[in-house]
């Protein structure tokens, strides 16, 4: 007993031996098991996704697992997926934090016969069957520009607050905002694009600068979620509430107070709950053979028939949250 | 009778025995409540997902034995991973050569810690807290915070995802390092000197031990293995990122301390560290497999990460307390046996 190393070796070999004798893997009572992976678990956005996913799971009678990382360790998503593979789930739905890293694990899942669907943020195309696309860049750009034009009566100067000048998705959206502007609104002018580094304080500061630099500014369009309340706070403190319109991409919950005060006129986002719902619907259909690569339409329960472009299942045009409807949503 | 009894309490009082019980309990519990816990692929997962932390814990043990600590290893993993990625993907180097450079870089990082600690006589906690930020900052600077490197060859990825003789490839590396560190700590004069230094640095100096040199070796070893862990981690993920290895230093320290090594230095074993590592690795994996039971109205598997953090904390405190209690019980009993009349003496 003086040699705990021998004991350790004993335990290790017992574990490994036990492993060999029980290598047959089985799921639970024939029910389909769908596993939903968020980018991070505590994030209200993904908690809302899960809510929608649960509704779909209850409707379909499938077992739903929900698990995700709690910190930024890039290995965590892979570990969760690999554990699900050995758990013997039927479908994995992943929102990918690190596109390339997670694809390694998702390919392994596919090799093990598990159906893989991505949502919110895609993996590499060969690592999944479908991507549930919550909104195309064009859809977002168009809706932002249309809403801005509607609020300002279709004329005047406006500015954009973005996260960083290098973020790929932000630049995509700005590209489509500019395209829409050129195409439909000749009387409007984009005077400036300012980065806020994804920080509310910085967005507030930048908006204050914009307000003094461009006295005729009609609207501020924030395209990152901390930017919307930041811009609203600046407009409010400048005493220009209602005079300078504030709109942007963000969660209704973060903006509710400003929307009710009339500082922020419109918050634009997809219905996050529907994203979770659609993802589970698509994953289950894929496993049951009701959805196969090459399909152009998908019958998604209460959401009706949705379009499929290539291997992207489209959730539809983004939703505009306003003073009138914002109380109906709790995310 | 009393002799065997004394021996028995001694064994129970051994920290390793307490941990072994915990591990057996975990295995039984998770195989009863969890789904496919002992399946072959899950047992591979348990080790595959934790080997990096196990490696860091192994080499953290000599560092802590000398009375030091190395908070920089997690960040060093990130830095080495990023440099490895850059060398392979941008300079077109072979993974083997790049891997050797990553280990060399880790060694250099460890040597930097060692130099600051032994030459400038700065406290290890402060030095490695500094390099903790420095290494991570460098990794982020090299990647501009967001770039990552992927698309490695299949033969390299096999290091992190393949198997050799039925066990995950990286587990064999772990066995080799574990054997090496065990020999170093328990079978060499250098290893004995680590404990002597941790127990009484001045005493060790008077005994003729080259204290500075030996302390330096512990940090250099720690850095070199951090470089190795980085390469294994990249092979497992297929991606090198600046935030690789975030928080690993604390997990490694947890395994070491849970394994019974005194945080003040001077005492501890490699077997204890291995058991501590195993206890935490089993806990992290096992909780995620309990699907049919609920806690706080959620399946246990959905809150596994939160629970395992909490339980690791409890385990750490519990195991330490149990050992102290068992020891004091043993000494009290021993005292009772040596003096037949334990009543307090009264003055004549």
Q: Tags for this entry?
A:
heterodimer; A: 331 residues; alpha/beta; Rossmann fold; 2 domains; 8-stranded mixed beta sheet; 6-stranded mixed beta sheet; 10 helices; 14 strands; B: 348 residues; mainly alpha; ABC transporter involved in vitamin B12 uptake, BtuC; two-stranded antiparallel ribbon; two-stranded antiparallel sheet; 72% helix; globular
The CATH architecture of chain B comes to Orthogonal Bundle
CATH class of the largest domain in chain A: Alpha Beta
User: In which order are the strands of the major sheet of chain B placed?
Assistant: 1-4
How large, in whole angstroms, is the Cα Rg of chain B? 22 Å
Q: How would you summarize this macromolecular structure in one to three sentences?
A:
The complex is a heterodimer of chains A (331) and B (348). With 331 residues, chain A is α/β, with parallel strands linked by helices.
Structure commentary:
- The complex is a heterodimer of chains A (331) and B (348).
- Chain A is α/β, with parallel strands linked by helices.
- Chain A is 44% helix and 21% strand.
- Chain A is built from ten helices and 14 strands.
- In chain A, the strands form two sheets. Chain A has an eight-stranded mixed sheet, sandwiched between helices. Chain A has a six-stranded mixed sheet with strand order 7-6-8-9-10-14, with helices on both faces.
- In chain A, α2 packs across α10 (272-287), α3 packs parallel to α4 (99-111) and α5 (137-152) packs across α6.
- The longest helix of chain A is centred in the first third of the chain and has 18 residues, at 4-21.
- Chain A is elongated, with a radius of gyration of 23 Å.
- Chain B has a single domain (2-334), classed as Orthogonal Bundle (ABC transporter involved in vitamin B12 uptake, BtuC), CATH 1.10.3470.
- Chain B has 15 helices and six strands.
- A two-stranded antiparallel sheet of chain B has the order 1-4.
- In chain B, α5 (73-89) crosses α12 (211-237), α6 (95-118) runs antiparallel to α12 and α14 runs antiparallel to α15 (304-338).
- The longest helix of chain B has 35 residues, at 304-338.
- Chain B starts with a helix and ends in a 10-residue tail after the last helix.
- Chains A and B meet through α1, β2, α3 and α4 of A and α2, α3, α12, α14 and α15 of B.
């Amino acid at each position: 007993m003086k040699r705990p190393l021998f004991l350790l070796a004993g335990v290790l070999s017992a574990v490994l031996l036990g492993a060999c004798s029980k290598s047959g893997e089985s799921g639970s009572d024939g029910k389909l098991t769908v596993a939903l992976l968020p980018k991070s678990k505590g994030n209200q956005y993904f908690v809302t996704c899960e809510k929608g996913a649960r509704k779909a799971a209850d409707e379909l009678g499938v077992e739903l697992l929900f698990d995700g990382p709690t910190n930024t360790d890039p290995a965590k998503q892979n570990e969760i997926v690999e554990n699900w593979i050995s758990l013997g789930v039927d479908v994995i739905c992943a929102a990918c934090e690190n596109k390339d890293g997670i694809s390694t694990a998702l390919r392994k899942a596919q090799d093990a016969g598990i159906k893989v669907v991505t949502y919110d943020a895609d993996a590499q195309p060969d690592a999944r069957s479908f991507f549930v696309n919550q909104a195309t860049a064009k859809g977002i750009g168009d809706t932002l520009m249309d809403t801005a034009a509607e609020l300002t009566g279709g004329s005047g100067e406006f500015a954009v607050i973005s996260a960083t000048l290098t973020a790929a998705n932000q630049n995509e959206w700005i590209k489509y905002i500019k395209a829409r502007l050129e195409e439909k609104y000749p009387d409007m002018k984009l005077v400036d694009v300012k980065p806020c580094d994804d920080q509310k304080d910085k967005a507030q500061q930048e908006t204050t600068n914009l307000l003094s630099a461009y006295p005729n500014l009609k609207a501020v369009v924030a395209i990152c979620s901390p930017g919307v309340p930041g811009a609203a706070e600046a407009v409010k403190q400048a005493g220009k509430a209602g005079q300078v319109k504030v709109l942007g991409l963000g969660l209704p919950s973060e903006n509710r107070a400003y929307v009710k005060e009339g500082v922020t006129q419109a918050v634009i986002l997809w219905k996050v709950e529907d994203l979770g719902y659609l993802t589970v619907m698509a994953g289950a259909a894929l496993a049951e053979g009701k959805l196969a690569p090459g399909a152009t339409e998908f019958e998604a329960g209460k959401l009706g028939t949705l379009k499929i472009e290539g291997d992207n299942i489209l959730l539809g045009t983004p939703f505009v949250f306003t003073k009138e409807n914002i109380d109906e949503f709790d995310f | 009778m009393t002799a065997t009894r004394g021996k028995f309490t001694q064994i129970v009082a051994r920290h390793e025995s307490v941990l072994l019980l915990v591990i057996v309990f975990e295995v039984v519990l998770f195989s009863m409540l969890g789904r496919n816990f002992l399946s072959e692929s899950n047992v591979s997962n348990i080790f595959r997902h934790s080997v990096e932390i196990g490696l860091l814990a192994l080499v953290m043990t000599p560092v802590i034995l000398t009375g030091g600590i190395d908070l920089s290893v997690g960040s060093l993993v990130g830095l080495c991973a990023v440099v490895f990625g850059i060398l392979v993907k941008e300079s077109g180097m072979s993974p083997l050569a790049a891997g050797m450079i990553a280990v060399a870089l880790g060694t250099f990082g460890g040597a930097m810690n060692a130099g600051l600690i032994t030459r400038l006589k700065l406290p290890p906690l402060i030095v490695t807290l500094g390099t903790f930020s420095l290494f991570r900052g460098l990794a982020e600077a090299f990647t501009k915070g967001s770039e990552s490197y992927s698309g490695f060859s299949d033969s390299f990825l096999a290091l992190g995802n393949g198997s050799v003789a039925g066990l995950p490839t990286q587990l064999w590396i772990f066995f080799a390092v574990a054997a090496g560190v065990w020999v170093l700590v328990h079978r060499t004069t250098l290893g004995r000197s680590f404990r002597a230094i941790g127990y009484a640095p001045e005493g060790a100096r008077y005994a003729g031990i080259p204290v500075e040199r030996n302390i330096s070796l512990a940090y250099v070893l720690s850095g070199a293995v951090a470089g190795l862990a980085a390469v294994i981690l990249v092979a497992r993920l297929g991606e090198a990122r600046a935030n690789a290895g975030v928080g690993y230093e604390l997990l490694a320290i947890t395994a070491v301390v849970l394994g019974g090594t005194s945080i003040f230095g001077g005492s501890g074993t490699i077997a204890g560290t291995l058991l501590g590592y195993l206890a935490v690795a089993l806990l992290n994996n096992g909780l995620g497999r309990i699907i049919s039971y609920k806690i706080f109205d959620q399946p246990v598997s959905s809150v596994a990460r939160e629970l395992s953090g909490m339980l690791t904390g409890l385990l750490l405190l519990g195991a330490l307390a149990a050992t102290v209690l068992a020891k004091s019980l043993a000494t009290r009993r021993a005292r009772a046996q040596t003096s037949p009349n334990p009543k307090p003496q009264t003055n004549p």
